[in-house]
Amino acid sequence: MTSSALASATGAAGRSVARIQRHQLRPTSAAAEASFISPRYLPLLVLLAVAGVAWDSQWLFPSTPASADPAEQTVLGSARRFVPFAVVAREQVSPTSFILTLKAPANKLPGVASLWNVFDLWCVEVKQPQIQVAREYTPLPPPPDAAADEDDTLRLYVRAVRGGEVSTYLSRLSPPSPDGAVAGDTVELRGPHGEFDLGSRLGGRGDRVVFLAGGTGIASALQAAHAVLPLPRAPSMTIFWAVRSRDEIYRGGGSLSPTNPSSPSSSSASWWNWSWNPFSGRSSEGPGSWSGIRAEALTVGTEDPSPVSRELLALKEKYGDRLDVRVVIDQEGTAVRDSDLAASLTCRPGGPETTHSVEGCRFHSQTAHLGMVDGAPNAGKRGLFRQSDCACSSSATSAAPGKNVFVVSGPEGFVEAYAGAKVWRDGGQLQGPVGGMLGALQRKNPDTLKDWIVLKL
């Protein structure tokens, strides 16, 4: 074969291979249809995409309440997820505790102020974003001098605990700088979660509330005072506030001396210790010593009160003798004694005698509270209480139902020491039987708590 013929054959072969390659790369009509969306499906896909955005938007940016529940008709309750709140203020209470003021994001829905009309006691979850854990915190109620434009703020009373993931995280948060050069931090909240409905338990006959608060548990006591003191039947209230140091009560520690030198002075007896025995410092005085409460009184006119004491004193000034506030200080060896509790359980002179509850009434029977979770039976919401839910109302007696209420709030060891431990069952905490110091008083005198409902937070 000559060179010209060879070249001609080679060129023909190359063109043939190129045609084969182009043929292989060109998709068939079936493949083309599989590779592209048919125009007739585009309207359907666009409709689905728009529906998906609208569905997600009702959670991210709710414009109208999705529920008739008033707790969900707020910027916090409607989201059903964690909502970012801006830190707008921080006030130091003691070297280890502080109050954070948080502002809700702008939204067409009402602020969080309406939640105070839904619950007596309630809390929110606070998320620690680095390790994705959450803890419950009880908001402080609005101070007596709160402005109307503060209805979108919440205040949390926090004590930084060594090893506490969330409290340590919160201790690092700051509001914006005064000149605005440094932006403030944000914190994510979820809730609200209702705790117990006090008004429904007081009913028409209960006229006394005693609240035993340990540390920042005073936030729940302030919520209770905010809820029950304005009631038309004018119940009275005693608050015992147990703190680690006097700094929590007075700025700089104050100068008042303890009024109970016979109380335990050893730090090993501290109620902050899980194993503390509240009876270790009990005096041997007889029943005659139960005629009055001996714990130190917080009185109007106290010099330089802490921010929390200032709010307690404002309530005391407003309601007078109907509110009695007593303080005990761990570092000074003072504690709430059994004689203090016995005196506080004495009904107010001239007050109505409370009725005996129908066994099993979920509002007025202590037995029915044994297996109850926080907030039951009406999720802590006043509006969900119905008279028909109270078994006492359907009983033969014509007397109005109602009980006095004793509440304990604080660290687990504190609650256990005074009212007995809560019980874990099926992954949740139940109230459990009344124990601790209150249980001992009841064993000594079975009628001690017959007109009382004991609640543990």
UniProtKB/TrEMBL annotation:
MF terms (GO), sorted A to Z: oxidoreductase activity
Top-level taxon of the source organism: Eukaryota
PROSITE patterns, per the entry: FAD_FR
Cross-referenced InterPro entries: CBR-like (IPR001834), Cbr1-like_FAD-bd_dom (IPR008333), FAD-bd_FR_type (IPR017927), FNR_nucleotide-bd (IPR039261), Riboflavin_synthase-like_b-brl (IPR017938)
Key word Oxidoreductase present: yes
CDD domains linked to this entry: cyt_b5_reduct_like (cd06183)
Keywords: FAD, Flavoprotein, Membrane, Oxidoreductase
Record carries keyword Oxidoreductase: yes
UniProt binding sites for FAD: 135, 137, 166-167
Family under the similarity heading: Belongs to the flavoprotein pyridine nucleotide cytochrome reductase family.
Protein name: Oxidoreductase FAD-binding domain-containing protein
